[in-house]
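Ticket #4471: structure output looks truncated?

Reporter: J.K.
Steps to reproduce: submitted the chain below (319 residues) through the standard prediction queue, then opened the result file.
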Amino acid sequence: KQDLSKLRSLTMALVEDRKNMAERLFQAEEKINRKESKRNEQSNLATMTERLREERHLALRSKTDLEDKIKVIIKEKDELQDRLKTEEERNRELQGKISTMQKKFNIFDNRKEKEEKYTNISIPNNTNYPCQAEDNKVRELTKELDELRRRLQEKETIEGELSKVEESFESLEKRLKEEQRRSRGLTGELEVAKKELSEYKQGEKQEVNQEHLLLCHLQKEQVKCRLLTREVETLKEKLQKLVGTEESICKVQTDRSTLQRKLIQQEAKNKDLAGVREKLTSELDRYKQIQNNNNVSHHRQTTTEQQSEPVESMFPDSY
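Returned output as attached by the reporter:
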């Protein structure tokens, strides 16, 4: 009975340990699943970090390119401004020359008109040479005017290019500001991603340590479970032996009660037989006394002996 109660308690303990082990295994599986999901998150985070790094690198490279372009444009702008100043100075000089030449030309026209009015028509050969000289001056002045007009057109072209350069410069400055703002945003996101990655690695280390401890504990529990299983099997064998022994004891007790019952019956029979024996013995003694006292004849004695022999043969144990 003690072994049976011990077996029951151990069986209950084994069942409880198995339940606890199943629950711990379920928790371990959940932790492993969480670990896998965190690994996926880590890979996604690493991908995002790499993408942010690439974008930051591209932003820095585009920023450098924009700065180089801005430097080139500023240099071109300075050169164009210098050229513009030079051309403006030349323009002012040419404007002065043009105004002077215009005045001279007007004076020359007035003088020519006056000379044509007051000159004698009869001597045209004397005036051919001055007229030719004046025509040459007019052609030279016309050439200078054309040159001045061409330079003015170049100046206007340079001013148009300068305005375009200024517009490009303003556009590049806007792009540079946008790239700087984007670079700052990407830098902030990269710092946040690095912080999250470091926190995740720290948490992963702690989870790895907890998982290692849990696995060690589970291995110990499995060893305990195997030992308890062996003890349960041993107790089952003992219980089977005890059950066989109890069956043998019950059988022996049954046989004993049967034998006791038979013994009681036999004792009752023996008592009955003893009473019968005593009765027959008393009768036999009475018959012997009658035989001795009466002294009957030999024939009667013989008859009496013949009658007594069957009685003795019927009860041989009574003597």
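Triage note (M.O.): checked the attachment and the full token line is present. The radius of gyration is 72 Å.
Status: closed, working as intended.
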